[in-house]
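User: Can you model how D-ribose sits in this protein?
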Amino acid sequence: MIIALASDHGGFSLKEEIEKHLIGRGYEVIDLGTHSQESVDYPVYGKRIGEAVAGGTADVGVAFCGTGIGISIACNKVKGIRCAVAVNSYMAEMAKRHNNANILALGGRILSVEQATEFVDIWLDTEFEEDRHARRVRLLDEM
Ligand code: RB5
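Assistant: Here's the modeled complex, given as structure tokens:
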């Protein structure tokens, strides 16, 4: 599985940590930036990772900004993207189990590395439940 990563400056440090973790777990990672703490605009990076996942360059993505909110809004403007913010492990699990989120958004200013690592692992390791949720996800994708 190929995992795309992208962040603004608010999520940069956390992205770097999660990248190391994912490589350690044996995933192929594409880092779409940003590559420093210098201030940048999260919509640019949300569009970039959204298009990478929607276009098939990557299978899924993890996006980061200060809160996870801004970059998730940007990702969700790309057709085919279902990006979910997670601030706890239940949200990380449900983002996959019920919403089949193809991008997980995390906040570099609100989560510890340990929390973010836990959420990413839960999201990656959880299966989409299908059944009635497949119909709802299909309705989302038709919007
Ligand atoms: C940048 O200062 C901050 O606004 C951004 O990282 C993010 O939190 C926006 O939603």
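A couple of observations from the model: The chain has a mean pLDDT of 98. Strands lie at 2-7, 28-31, 60-65, 83-85, 103-107.
User: Helpful, thanks.
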